[in-house]
Design brief:
822 residues, Rossmann fold, 3 domains, nine-stranded mixed beta sheet, six-stranded parallel beta sheet, 35 helices, 49% helix, binds pyridoxal-5'-phosphate
Length: 822
Amino acid sequence: MKLASAYGLPLQTPQTSDIEALAAEILQALKYRVGKDATVATQYDWLTAAILVVRDRIIDHWVKSTKQAYEQSAKRVYYLSLEFLIGRLMRDAFSNLGMMEDMRAALGSLGVELDVIATLEPDAALGNGGLGRLAACFMESMATVDVPAHGYGIRYANGMFRQEISDGWQVELPETWLDHGNPWEFERRERSFEVGFGGTVEQVAAKDGRLERHVWRPQERVLAVAYDTPVVGWRGNRVNTLRLWAGMPVDPILLDAFNAGDHIGALRESNKADALSRVLYPADSSPAGQELRLRQEYFFTTASLQDIIQRHLSQYGELHSLPEKAAIHLNDTHPSVAVAELMRLLMDVHGIDFDTAWGITKGTFAYTNHTLLPEALESWPVPLFERLLPRHMQIVYAINAQLLHEARTTGQFDGEQIARISLIEENGERRVRMGNLAFAGSHSINGVSALHTELMKETVFADLHRLYPSRINNKTNGITQRRWLFQCNAGLTGLIREAIGDRFLDDIAALTELDAFAGDAAFREKFAAVKRANKARLASIVAERQGIKLDPSALFDIQIKRIHEYKRQLLNIIEAVALYDQIRSHPERDWMPRVKFLGGKAAPSYHNAKLIIKLANDVARVINRDPAVRGLLKVVFTPNYNVSLAEVMMPAADLSEQISTAGMEASGTGNMKFALNGALTIGTLDGANVEIREHVGADNIFIFGLTAQEVAERRNGGYAPRGVIETSPELSQALAAISSGVFSPDDPNRYRDLISGLYDHDWFMVAADFDAYAATQRQVDAVWGDSPDWNARAIRNVARMGWFSSDRTIRQYAREIWNVPA
Ligand SMILES: *Cc1c(COP(=O)(O)O)cnc(C)c1O
């Protein structure tokens, strides 16, 4: 960890007087706010004190930003997301405020090492993977490009599980990120809202006897209490709010039950409320389908909408102007019950008629779709939805009646197409389709890469798109360069500043000036030295945590992301096995030393994903121990992949593995982080890889395999993987080795079914793409053997990745969806 600061140029040169003043402030915070004296303070106490000192500065900006938005009657953006994968905040805050070096020096003068306490900060893992990390990058970019915004989500007491590897298997442990308190957040007890579940709906008659209003009388009630975290943009420009809700009982203790001697039953309400914000469902790209999940979705959605309405009413006094002053964004379908909830609040609580309410709703909401996987599209059984949310069920039916009427009136849809547009799935068990509900209730529906958006129009939303052809649009994902370059790769950032000056720090488009340096031999040497130092840092972490010794001069080939069959870690592992065979059979050849890193979590209930983790570890054990390999190939599974580990691994990669089955990865953002840090990509034409190729140039990326269209054709045209496997000796041999227990002598049948699945159906086209993948890996070796060429390509990747900044993405959302200046 120490290496990072050794070569990074500080954003500000520390001044002695500033340092002394800062050190005094830290001591003050330690004494009066942590309640400790320097002589007895633990490292955690120093961490808290350091954060509090910086937090004070952030609060000054926060108050100013909030006041300004109010005074200017600015339109606000509300980003509703069930996940925010924010990671650690301290370094990001120091870096964005330009205080990194001052804080390092001030802490140093007190005998405290910044890099040591930084590793103690808990990694806030309130998300599964890409979707949650996107929400976090967006929050930072909205603050940076000066969009007044609130993020809304759940304050999970236990976020994403901590992964340990035991005997090669994934073991899930609770991540208790709040154990040492959370100095970043502010509890707002006064900002709490009631949330109801179940019960009945009553119709209240007006004086003339006509039905006037619906009154929902929930059977259960809990409170949502706000916890606010300030989100600071680059150079402290603007500070926005991430507001996370925690469940609290309306009656913490049921006194009647307690007095009657039922001491445990008396806490019933407390436990129920607590459950709402206890755990994050650890499934990525597949819906949890559990009642508690629907409760969580409704819980945070209604609290957020009530909060938004209260803020709007206090400023404007009426709700018809909501679409002009509030843009509410639905990050995937998880908050899409919001469409029915806003209708309920407008009609039942605020007395607005259906048609007007529907206009306000559509004018206010926009929705981002994140996946086309059919199994990932959220829907809820009608009986469950009706029991928990009886009034919302009525509203969904009312919206549906209008939607289907509109579709029928066009005369353009047959019965089957109407059935696909419906908010209710009628085949088999009746279910509420949350994607269709979000689509119907939004004025904008966006995909997250050009390819994904096109496929969305052709598949899941084909009929709704025909009905409302102007709604679907594309917003290719992005990443914040502050975290994913400036903060995590101080060495490269310093080098770029030396080469092209500081303009790119504020205008990432200026990064293209680095392109000219790809041909500069001296620069290439420096670039390689930075990469090498980053690799040495990763190697030392792996040595310390896993006892595996790695050579930083080997090619570092990295695949880190959630473990999922469509992401095809299996393809990568099979290629490692095939390469292992080749190295042993042809020791005379000039093999390029390579380390294959794999990392990622599997959903605890996803059998094959967990088996793939075990396979990676089994293969690693055999290969790493085999003297015949002579260290030319190593395989390392890095446990507990999270944002903090990503911050170390992205800068250390030579090769980025983005090898999903074409058509299945909506965008990917890991692909962007790697390329921005100077890794070359090996990948399929999937998600944002397509656009990365357009930006970095086809010569600076390794593309292989079937296209999305070819995948679809094969699936329709009776793809026969067995024949494909039998014509590839390399693949057949690798599969035979895995299947027969070469890597699992303790349980030779462990991988039999996994491998026979490839022969039988191979839905993810592993066999179909294997030969192309393996051949492309040998091309990678050839280019790696020519370091000046490799480094030139890597430099061009860095230079040309600026477009993938989430600042660009957010500006597009702001102008084209939210209608706010940016
Ligand atoms: C960026 C990121 C992801 C997303 O990775 P993909 O390769 O796009 O799936 C997941 N987890 C973490 C911790 C990340 O930082």
